[in-house]
Amino acid sequence: MIRRGAIAVAVLLLGAVQAARADETCMSPYLPKITGQEDYVYAWTLGVEGMGDGSDKLVTIGATPGSPTYGKVVSSTSVGGRHEAHHAGFSDDRRYLWAGGLDDSKIWVFDVATDPAKPKLVRTIDTFVKDTGGVVGPHTFFALPGRMLIAALSNAKDKGGRTALVEYNNDGKYIQTVWLPKDAEYGYDVRVQPRLNRMLTSSFTGWNNYMMDFGKLLADPEAMKHFGQTMVLWDFHARKPIQTLQVPGAPLEIRWALQPRHNYAFTSTALTSKIWLIAQQPDGTFAAKAVADIGDPTKTPLPVDLSLSADDRWLFVATFMDGTVHVFDVADPEHPKEVATEHVGKQANMVSETWDGERVYVTSSLLANWDKKGADGEQFLKAYRWDGTSLTPLFAVDFEAAQLGRPHIMHFGQDRFYKNQIYSAADARTARAETP
């Protein structure tokens, strides 16, 4: 009886811990996870000429229900100028947020630990192209132990799609460049599954295309030929490609399944509007298969981002052109079923669910020259409640009205998390952990 009671208590405690998880999904497995309600949403934002200071900036939004700053701008930190702000990612201790510009390939590092409400710019790396031997367009920032792995989009020689993976240490020192294989030289996203010693990369297009006006791009048959059609599976520790998978239509974001028993990942193709499953086979290799349609590709819905729930049950897909979030039940990964849609605005880009599965955040901007114009080019960050059936609005921040610019990727922060971290005495910020 005592043993049964102990087991019951353990189960209850485990359930409480799991219910408290609230960090964003789809992050590096090397990151410490936030538990409990997120206090802040950090939005890496493109500057707009004549709007506010006109510069790219990191905008902090309050996210604690009941607080005076809930759903409001808490702070913004400008980097000076417009650089095509796009993606960002935390360092492995979650103390710093690295953010990149796709145009001139600059990287900015923000300290988000000292004062989570007011991130501080502490480092600028403006030698990326020179450091890396001609890599252009730092896109994905993926934390490794002591390092930042960066997937890029282009190169300095012809500004086409040939590109590479790059590594820096946490102090901003360049380590190495790993060029993608010749039969799959386009890049975009990178994700690592440590328990399988596998790394997966996807593919998009080069600087010549992503900096072009979207309407002009669609009308240019030659330019439309220059999009990636492959994904590469790597031996992670060796940094060597193992397989090249054919995934036509520009496969973008990668989302590995999070449960240990699931050895697969999802992606979506921007040009063909499909969900693809990349799954391990009995012989250990991987295979790519289209498993669902997101929309009519002739109408260019442009699926641009994915978020997979922590239990691998729900896949959230944002389609840019029609401003919609689609929710798929992927409990059977080979047969996804669309169970809900939410029209969030005139355009929609990044989508991120919290680990507790209760909230979903959406931003609006894709690329400066691809965003819609005029009234259709509205810019926002919106929060929704997800109850397993539908998305219910919680709050919205109008970035145009606030004169902030165009929000792209978002990440979450929490006061309590940083108060409970201990940093070395050599760090500028000393430990704030409470002692008994």
Name the average pLDDT. 92
Largest sheet: 4 strands, antiparallel
Separate helix tally: 5
What CATH architecture would you give? Answer: 7 Propeller
Total strand count, please?
A: 28
User: How do the strands line up in the largest sheet?
Assistant: 3-2-1-28
Q: What is the helix content? A: under 10%
**CATH superfamily (homologous) name:** YVTN repeat-like/Quinoprotein amine dehydrogenase
By CATH reckoning, the class would read: Mainly Beta
Which structural class do the helices and strands define? mainly beta
At the fold tier of CATH, the topology name is Methylamine Dehydrogenase, Chain H
Number of domains: 1
The low-confidence parts are 1-20, 428-436
How would you characterize this protein structure?
With 436 residues, this protein is mainly β. The protein has a single domain, classed as YVTN repeat-like/Quinoprotein amine dehydrogenase (Methylamine Dehydrogenase, Chain H). The chain is built from five helices and 28 strands. The protein has helices at 2-20, 128-132, 207-210, 214-218, 415-419; strands spanning 40-46, 57-62, 73-78, 85-90, 96-101, 107-111, 120-125, 135-144, 147-155, 164-169, 174-179, 190-193, 198-201, 230-235, 240-246, 251-256, 264-269, 274-280, 286-293, 303-308, 314-319, 324-329, 337-343, 351-353, 359-363, 380-386, 391-398, 406-413. The strands form seven sheets. Strands 3-2-1-28 form a four-stranded antiparallel β-sheet, with no helix packed on it. Strands 4-5-6-7 form a four-stranded antiparallel β-sheet, with no helix packed on it. A hairpin with a 5-residue loop joins strand 24 (351-353) and strand 25 (359-363). The chain starts with a helix and ends in a 17-residue tail after the last helix. The model is unreliable at 1-20 and 428-436 (pLDDT under 50).
